[in-house]
């Protein structure tokens, strides 16, 4: 292991994505390693918002059909731009709603308890919002979540085993919802195998791609996944509260959405104002109301960057960055009782590292005070996300050095070991 700074500089020189850093607003006095919570703003995202504001100014109501990006087709166009990121057909993707509202929409559409099949399967490590949504969906069907929500257990509280997931696919399961990447440990689930096993048992399956879209390539159509949903403010850099996305496999086209509204309509029929819905013939049918145009606008710029970089190149650099960071942590921080709790191997490691330490909360505060932005996950986790499009190998080197000096000089002891309101 070469721990010299010159090695980081060399890696940066060889990096064929290095020019993308110039596309982002990067602070000179901090190192941002939190792109998996809120991605940085790009110049193109900013410009795209200005363009949409200009079309509102210039066209008013006519902006729905006029201007560079007519708003009436914006959700579909952004869906098409997202399709290659997840290996879907363009008409299988729509940009709409939020992660959680899309989950509600998809469970409303795909969960049809019948006979013995009345249960939903999830896992015990997923993000709380997904679990709240699943429980409330069961309640809407008059089913007790205690009995009808199965949560696959983790042996180590950080990762899930494929065989435990398959074992939980009992006869009474109608629907499975799992994350593509676990938000804490960054473990990638084997979506292809899990989907195949679910289908063998007549179970429909969908994935939450919040931490996988923009961080790893997917082949949802080839894997035959039934549905998926994601946010766009993490790895996709769409900005706070940017409009989310969803995917519906084309074999499910033509059905009415569980939660209908006039934007579920086939576009040519929408303004007939009929009281009988003619659903759009594709994923567009899973929209509900008028699109949040201003919160979707940044994606016009940020998705363009992903199209230019390509997911294969993004993934390759991301793995190099996390490999390099793990090696440096092992070489430089071995005296300070950190546990690397993310998966090590490249098949199951997502785009962030997860360190555990009993003083994690105050170590994160000390890092921020020294200009390194990580994020803390209760009770003892530190997530570090070196992002392929805008972080450098030198960022990684510098942050490990800063962390080392914080530990060596015990500067974290100047802070209380408690999380903030947002952590
Ligand atoms: C970030 C995240 C969410 C957030 O849901 P919103 O509706 O966008 O607030 C949900 N689920 C997972 C797994 C996440 O990582």
TrEMBL record:
Signal peptide: none annotated. One of its GO terms (molecular function) is kynureninase activity. It comes from the Bacteria. Gene3D superfamilies: Aspartate Aminotransferase, domain 1 (3.90.1150.10), Type I PLP-dependent aspartate aminotransferase-like (Major domain) (3.40.640.10). Its EC number is 3.7.1.3. It holds the Pfam family KYNU_C. Pyridoxal 5'-phosphate binds at residues 99-100, 127-130, 208, 211, 233, 262, 290. Keywords: Hydrolase, Pyridine nucleotide biosynthesis, Pyridoxal phosphate. Its cofactor is pyridoxal 5'-phosphate. Belongs to the kynureninase family. Catalyzes the cleavage of L-kynurenine (L-Kyn) and L-3-hydroxykynurenine (L-3OHKyn) into anthranilic acid (AA) and 3-hydroxyanthranilic acid (3-OHAA), respectively. This is Kynureninase. It comes from Virgibacillus byunsanensis. The gene is kynU.
